[in-house]
Every structure is written in structure tokens, then in C-alpha cells.
Design goal:
The structure is a single chain. By secondary structure, the protein is of the alpha/beta class. The protein is 40% helix and 19% strand. The strands form 3 sheets. The protein has a 6-stranded parallel sheet with strand order 3-2-1-4-7-8, sandwiched between helices. A 6-stranded parallel sheet has the order 11-10-9-12-13-14. The chain has a two-stranded antiparallel sheet with strand order 5-6. Helix 5 crosses helix 6 and helix 5 packs antiparallel against helix 12.
Length: 298
């Protein structure tokens, strides 16, 4: 339970609604700014305006999955006003407060460091990343189906990267009857891919493995699908880049060649916001509970 914990939420999308509901259910004292367009607010949530006074009493500050941009602008789908996190807001927070987000950019990291506040990025947790890989893979499959005129069954697909998302993506494609190639950078990933019945190769040999591919799903957040790689692809090949922006594909050259290539980060919040919100909410509650327990032992 989070009884006695004061949590302030700033902005977000449909995922954040689920996180707020989870915290209310756990008996936290919850305030939220950036939700003036929320049609049916959950009972127990105090809707307020962003101010230093609001954050001055917070034990926990929760920002959206991508905390804010490099000017402090917070994504606030349910607000009619611009929401901007400033130095004065963070400065007002008690020194023992914790700031939570999915992933933080340099602006937010700098603010928290300047005022010695603990910053927790929930997407760095293995459990969150693994659970999030499920709606990511489902969303990627939907995009593939919508942008091809052939079935995934019987196709040759390629997954670049075998992290949490890459593993789930490859397994989903295999389950649909696709012949799956997996580009890896570590020998242990090569061995695991082979054990799973996929066709692994080292990413340094990518050029040798692309000519017969129908679908490519990239999870590597650096330029890997270069113009040279694109020049060897069949024109019907579809590329879905799941890496964080700007992705790992030369989109300009792909367009020039007439190859469909789409950057698709943040799919959990698009295709399954309720499930994604429940995942984030459970991780947040667990993290706050752990943090409270540690402080209680001090």
C-alpha cells in the first residue's frame, strides 16, 4: 500500500490514466496537473495546475513515458494548455523526493542532478522492458500486415537486435510461420537464436543476408540499415524500425528506392495503452514501495 505517500502526476497519455488509477487504488494521495480535458477523472484524484506549490509537498513526481523534451515541455494529451517543467518546479521539491519517468532526456537529468533529486527511469527495469515488448511486437505485426500484400506465414523476416523486444519479435514471427533471421552482436545471443530455431548471423555480415528478406524489424538504435543495405533489398521489402528516434534506417534513401520504411517507437502506448499503463503502474508502485521500505530501514 502507498498510504501517506503524496504523488504528483504531470501530463501523459492514456497510459498515465491507468497509472494514476493504480496509485489511487493503492491509497496514495494523488494530485495531477495537465488533465483539464480528462472527461471522467477517477475519484480520489485532485486535478490542479502545475506550480511550485504543488510540487513543494510531493514525495513522488511522475512524468510521462518520455519525461519531457529539451525545453521541459511535457506531453499532455488531456490538457488544453502547454505544460512546461521548469527549474523552479524541481527546486521546490523536498530533498527526499523521487522523480519517476519511463526514459529521461538530458534536460530532466540535469534538473534532477542540480537539485540532488533521485531520478528513476522505469523503462530501464528488465521486467518493464520485457512486458512492454509484447504490445510492441503486436503493434509491429499490425503494421506489417497493413503494409504488405503477402502473408507473414511463408515469408522471410529479419529481426535486428536480440534484446528484450527483438527476442519477443522473433518468437512472434516464428509463431506465425515466418522463416526468421536474427542479426546479433554477441556470441551468446547467436547461440540462443540458434537454439530457438532461428537463423542467426552477426550484424557485421548484414549485407550477405538481406537480398531474400521480405520484412525487417529493427531494434538497434544506431544506423544499421544503410544505403548500401537498402540497395540490396527487394523493392517489396517492408522495414519497421522499432528503435528510439531517429532509428537505425536511412529513411531518405529508402524512400528514394521506393521501399516502405517506417519509424515506430512507442508502440505500447499506441496499440495497447491500457495494458502498457498497467505495466508501468505496477512497476511504479513496486519501486515506490521498495524505496519507502529502504528509507524506513535507515
Amino acid at each position: 500500500m502507498l498510504t501517506g505517500i503524496r504523488i504528483v502526476f504531470l501530463g501523459g497519455d492514456a497510459r498515465q490514466i491507468e497509472v494514476i488509477r493504480k496509485c489511487v487504488e493503492m491509497d496514495a494521495t494523488v494530485s495531477a496537473a495537465g488533465f483539464d480535458k480528462w472527461e471522467s477523472p477517477s475519484p480520489g484524484v485532485n486535478l490542479e495546475e502545475l506550480s511550485a506549490e504543488l510540487l513543494g509537498n510531493a514525495d513522488v513526481l511522475v512524468l510521462p513515458t518520455v519525461g519531457c523534451d529539451d525545453e521541459g515541455i511535457i506531453n499532455a494529451l488531456f490538457s488544453s494548455h502547454r505544460l512546461q517543467l521548469l527549474d523552479e518546479h524541481i527546486a521546490a521539491m523536498p530533498s527526499r523526493s523521487t522523480v519517476y519517468t519511463g526514459m529521461a532526456k538530458s534536460y530532466l537529468r540535469s534538473l534532477c542532478a542540480r537539485h540532488s533529486l533521485k531520478l528513476v527511469e522505469l523503462l530501464n527495469r528488465d521486467d518493464v522492458a520485457i512486458y512492454n515488448s509484447i504490445p510492441t511486437a503486436e503493434g509491429a505485426l499490425v503494421m506489417a500486415i497493413q503494409n504488405t500484400d503477402f502473408t507473414i506465414h511463408g515469408s522471410t523476416s529479419m529481426v535486428l537486435g536480440m534484446g528484450r523486444t527483438g527476442f519477443t519479435m522473433a518468437r512472434a514471427l516464428q509463431g506465425l510461420g515466418s522463416s526468421v533471421k536474427v542479426g546479433v552482436r554477441r556470441q551468446e545471443h547467436y547461440a540462443r537464436a540458434e537454439e530457438m530455431g532461428w537463423k542467426p548471423f552477426m550484424t557485421g555480415e548484414l549485407l550477405l543476408h538481406v537480398p531474400d528478406v521480405d520484412l525487417i524489424f529493427n531494434t538497434i538504435p544506431s544506423m544499421i540499415i544503410t544505403a548500401q543495405v537498402l540497395s540490396r533489398l527487394q523493392r517489396h521489402c517492408v522495414i519497421i524500425d522499432l528503435a528510439s528516434a531517429p532509428g537505425g534506417c536511412d529513411f531518405r534513401y529508402a524512400e528514394k528506392r521506393g521501399i516502405k520504411a517506417m519509424l515506430a517507437p512507442g508502440l505500447p502506448g499506441i496499440v495497447a495503452p491500457k495494458s502498457a499503463g498497467i505495466i508501468m503502474g505496477s512497476a511504479l508502485v513496486q519501486s515506490i514501495s521498495d524505496e519507502t521500505s529502504i528509507r524506513g530501514d535507515e
